[in-house]
Amino acid sequence: MSFTTQLQHWAHKTNIQRVVVVACMLLYAVSPVPEFWITQLNYIALYSLVILGLVLLTGIGGLTSFGQAAFVGIGAYTSAYLTVNMGWSPWLTVFAGLFITGISALVVGWITLRMSGHYLPLATIAWGLSLYYLMGNLDALGKYDGILGVPALTLFGWDISQGRSFFVLAWGMVLFAAFALLNLMDSRTGRAIKAMRSSGLMAEAMGVDTLRHKVGIFLIAALFASISGWLFAHFQRTVNPSPFGLKMGIEYLFMAVLGGAGFVWGAISGAVMTKLLEDELQVLLPKLLGTSGSYEVIVFGVVLVLVLKYLPDGLWSLVGRFLPKPNRAEDWQTAAALPERAKPALGETVLEVKAIRKQFGGLTAVNDIGFSIQAGQIVGLIGPNGAGKSTTFNLITGVLGLSSGEVKFRGQTISGLPSREIARRGMSRTFQHVKMIPELTVLENVALGAQLRGSKGALSSMLRLDRAEEQSLLREAARQLERIGMGHAMHELAGNLAMGPQRLLEIARALCSDPALLLLDEPAAGLRHKEKQALAGVLRQLRSEGMSILLVEHDMDLVMDVTDHIVVMEFGTLLMQGTPEQVQQSPKVRAAYLGVEH
Amino acid sequence: MDFSIASILLLDGITNGAVYALLGLATVLVFSVTRVIFIPQGEFVAYGALTLAIFQTGKVPGTVWLLLIMALLAAVMDVRLSWQHSHDGRRALKAGLTTLAAPLMVSILSIWAAPHQLPLLVQALLTVAIVTAFGPLVYRLAYQSLADASSLVLLIVSVGVHFAMTGLGLLFFGAEGFRNPSFWDERLSLGPLAISGQAVIIMLTSLALIVLLWQFFSRTLYGKALQATAVNRLGARLMGISTHGAGQATFAMAALIGALSGLLIGPTTTVFYDSGFLIGLKGFVAAVMGGLHSYPLAALGALFVGLVESFGSFWASAFKEVIVFTLVLPILLWRSVAGGNEEEH
Question: Is the pLDDT of residue B342 over 50?
């Protein structure tokens, strides 16, 4: 290997990149830059910590908060109050701040996140306002004057609350948070968060508890803000309500959107740009307009609208497209295989559907349907449009609740369970309209299927304690892709795939969960002839390996070709069931599909 | 607390609640037609009160210049859009002039009228015309090309618009606050209760507007067309309803309601360029009570907010705002328990 290729190889290694970034930061601290620029960057570090939380919440999770400034305030006030009035050490108060912030975030999140996405930002506006007025009116917190004389941060008697030492402390924390976030994005939990954003239904079907993840990312974002507040209190040495008001909360979001809320480095550059812009405007605008006042908000407002209109992914998207994106290193060959569940014996009843019924108001969409599936069988569920096939499918997978009846899976009643619990028991599904995460690779999308076979959470991912498990998950994903003949495409972006491979991706993802029963919802829809043949081949191969499959499909050639047993529905009721030959010869089925001669 | 204090607080709460009800209805209206959570609703309130205040001093209100600038920008955008579609110069020009016409007429009228010190009612009418003209322009400039974006993006746009409108308010009105003269100075006594004429006007106007809105949506074809846009944008478009037109009309109504609210509260309190935000948000809390889609619940919520505020300010005046805005959390909790999961689409 020549020296330059060696160098390139190194440059792609994440750890080395990070060491270089930290070294640059330290170098800046000891370089002879004027104090002014150190102070500027100290403020930017405080902003960046908050915005990194917003990257997770908004850029990755698709939720938004205007109340981050309030969490900064909680961190700052907690530390200021406890150090000034109780004489606590700042190294203790940081945890007190985190604790109070955490409780508040859990309460706000738990209440609002079970409703539609816009209630969280609305609640955070109200919450930010009420906290601001609370800080400004409580005698104990010094009303609008705040708390003065907050002690400095010291380490072994050394003041690290100002200048270059604070720079190293604050930026050290920012970089630590940034790396932790990057680690989180590339992990089991990160995939779950991205899945939740792209489709809550799909994420739940993969076993993701979406409410828990939403509350979780809101909590993490709040904790980042709280640490920023703690640093702020001891850097400013005084706190008052004004930097924690709603205006600042909106400015944090502005910084994230300007730089690019989806990118860690974009968000930090957004903080840099906003701080510099704000300083310029605060001098320039009053001069230009001839009166004093905070006119920069006009520019911020207009820029925010323009960015959302013309550059929705922020300024970093202009830079990001030029950065190399090397393929993931295939380093999972030696990883441990994931344990597999005990499979049903051939001929054992896997699924038993007993007289299930679903009523929407006065309409009975599914009327006492019953059938069963034995292990190693492919059962087709067919019927004309509007027959209730999809509703039946949703009733079995737990997306919809039953009006009456019972579904038994491997001998246990599963009706009434949420879809993620049903997934946990070994039932895995695909979607009629493909649901995947387009900006992730095929491999990462498929690994999402193995969500329930891993256990490492957000904290282990952030600290990179999840690597052994992560490699096992990726190994399984690669194995399933090979199994259905898509191993060559594992590093492609899922969004770039044609319809056929997309459907196969969904099947591989479902297989990744090590299912005992596979439910396929119109897997042939939109496929070309060749792709359908390939699909039929995959289904037969899966059956020969002992898999049981329920197939909802419109393509009669495929259904007649691969199924062992067919259930025919019409107008929500069971028309008949039997072997493909029996169904083909049934006059009732023909009448349902083609109508009757009069 | 004795009966007379309680009745004063009650009356105060209902009066404020009536204004919040108007703003809450405007919020519900805008959200249900355009999916925009219109945070800057309160800015129209401040613009309304302050425009009238400047008219009172005999000067041309700054909002007139702002209106002209925004109308010009919107006209340029419309000319460009029309030219890109048709490459027809006359058509493009016509599109621009249509946008420009109403704001221009209102502005010229205002510039002529300002130094004449016309009667209060005429000035109030002019104020309503000016502020209402802002509505469609705000929609045109900030929201129209993003109309199909997610409601989250629209919400962030709203926050941007709020920032811009507050800053512009400071620029055009200055930092000074104004208190408008009362429309009706009479004090009526109802037994032990004394009601100011202004309070009566506030309550009656609110009631009238609420009835008017209700009639508009249930009786007129255009009202029904707007509702159709709310339910399904594409479907409405296929039925020949212009969704852009619907958006602009809705924003005009929201601005009109905002302006009227501004006129109503102007005599009861000193209004600053940024006072509208808090007032608007209280209407907003009321709208959230109605789940952002129920008019009657929003109106009831507004009365509740008004009462909580007035009684709250009696018991713990410093914590009035804290109490009102913290109210959102229990309201949301109640909605999430009562309404089940409102899964996004």
Answer: no
Q: Is A334 contained in some domain? A: no
Give the tokens for residue B62: 């700054």
Of the candidates B37, B157, B322, which has its C-beta nearest A133's C-beta? B322
pLDDT score at A10: 61
Shortest CA gap A594–chain B (Å) = 30
Is B76 inside a domain boundary?
yes
Inspect the interface and report whether the beta carbons of A301 and B167 lie closer than 8 Å: yes
ipTM of the complex: 0.90
Q: How many domains would you assign to chain A?
A: 3
Cα separation of B225 and B206, whole Å? 24
* pLDDT-derived band at B305, boundaries 50, 70, 90: very high
All residues at 6 or more sequence positions from A549 whose CB lies less than 8 Å from its CB, including other chains: A377, A378, A379, A517, A518, A519, A520, A539, A542, A543
pLDDT digit string, tens, across residues B131-183: 999 999 999 999 998 888 888 889 999 999 999 999 999 998 988 888 888 87
**CA pair distance B97, B78, nearest whole angstrom:** 9
Contact call for residues A191 and A447 (beta carbons, < 8 A): yes
Claim to verify: residue A63 and residue A132 sit in the same structural domain: yes
Cβ-proximal residues to A406 (8 Å cutoff; 6+ apart), any chain: A354, A355, A356, A413, A415
Q: Which residues of B touch A121 (CB under 8 A)?
A: 152, 155
SS3 B196: strand
Chain B: give the shortest CA distance to residue A144, in Å.
12
CATH number at residue A71: 1.10.3470
The beta-carbon neighbor of A289 closest among B171, B323, B333 is B171
pTM of the model: 0.91
Q: Which domain holds residue A91?
A: 6-319
Is residue A432 domain-resident?
no
The number of residues making up chain B comes to 345
Q: Please identify every stretch of chain A with a pLDDT value under 70, giving residue numbers as ranges.
A: 1-12, 596-598
Whether A117 and B151 lie within 8 Å, measured CB to CB: yes
| Subunit contact B325:A133, Cβ cutoff 8 A | yes
Hey, what are A434's tokens?
A: 């493909």
CB-based contact B332 A119, cutoff 8 Å: yes
Taking CA atoms, what residue in A is nearest to B280?
A: A126
Contact A111 B339 (CB under 8 A): no
**Chain B residues with CB inside 8 Å of A299's CB?**
167
Residue B341 confidence (pLDDT): 45
